[in-house]
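Please fill in the sequence for the structure shown.

STRUCTURE ENCODING:
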């Protein structure tokens, strides 16, 4: 198999790995800005932010482990300055990070950014259906991408999807992961399935939940109670409790603790179709 490499450049503002970051592909026009909400003033100091003001952005509301990430999509002709408006309002107060995709006004004219906003909202709402996100947008825009801009919009959005996936916010529905290697557990008679991205472990809809045994961590106990109350965990016709939507966890052990109860080692608990543990697949190889 021929190896394919993708070249990306990145700068860290004030040498802070968790602060404002700027990334781009050298041969492409758009730049990606990752801006923590607490660093909005610093982001305004970037030398090119007043030149690259047109584009789309995502507001991210990261939540506790196992809960859905909140996400909002919008367009801007003001660049980073647009975030100041969101910071001052209460209707979207749960966001803690912004990801902007910006270019100059000639490249990203109004038709292009409207098309990108449409694709962004459509993508996040499709992900919401599979349980990945809680989308904070209201109605999907009725904008129609004309034939003269469709090719450019689609190309730019492929870059956006790549960067969002790299940052841990994939813009494909969770069902798309079913082509990945699926891991399972049958411990204590509980049958559950999930997939591992390398960063997070996602338990798949239909997995059984051992409600008779509480997880060791109170946060997982509270999450269980919340999902039972909302119906996201419910009894099937045989009286078995099942997860009715996908749920993502920061670690394989967090996922198995939530499903099985108690304290578990997810690296040895989750196994693939050949009986290999997650540890054998990802660490031994």
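FILLED IN BY: designer on duty
SEQUENCE:
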């Amino acid at each position: 198999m021929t190896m394919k490499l993708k070249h990306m450049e990145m700068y860290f503002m004030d040498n802070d790995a968790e602060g404002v970051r700027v990334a781009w592909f050298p041969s492409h026009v758009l730049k990606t800005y990752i801006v923590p909400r607490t660093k909005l003033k610093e982001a305004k100091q970037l030398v090119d932010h007043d030149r690259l003001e047109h584009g789309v952005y995502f507001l991210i509301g990261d939540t506790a482990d196992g809960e859905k990430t909140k996400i909002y999509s919008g367009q801007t002709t003001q660049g980073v300055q647009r975030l100041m408006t969101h910071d001052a309002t209460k209707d979207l107060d749960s966001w803690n990070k912004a990801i902007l995709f910006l270019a100059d006004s000639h490249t990203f004219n109004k038709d292009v950014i409207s098309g990108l906003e449409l694709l962004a909202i459509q993508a996040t709402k499709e992900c919401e259906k599979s349980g990945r996100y809680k989308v904070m947008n209201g109605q999907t825009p009725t904008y129609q991408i004309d034939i003269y801009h469709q090719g450019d919009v689609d190309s730019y959005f492929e870059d956006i999807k790549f960067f969002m996936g790299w940052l841990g916010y994939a813009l494909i529905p969770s069902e798309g992961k079913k082509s990945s290697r699926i891991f399972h557990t049958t411990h204590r008679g509980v049958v559950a399935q999930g997939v591992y991205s390398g960063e997070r472990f996602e338990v798949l809809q239909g997995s059984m939940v051992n409600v008779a045994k509480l997880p060791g961590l109170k946060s997982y106990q509270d999450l269980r109670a919340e999902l039972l109350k909302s119906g996201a965990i419910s009894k099937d016709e045989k009286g078995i409790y099942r997860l009715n939507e996908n749920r993502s966890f920061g670690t394989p052990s967090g996922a198995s603790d939530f499903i099985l109860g108690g304290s578990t080692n997810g690296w040895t608990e989750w196994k693939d179709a050949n009986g290999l543990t997650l540890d054998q697949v990802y660490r031994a190889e």
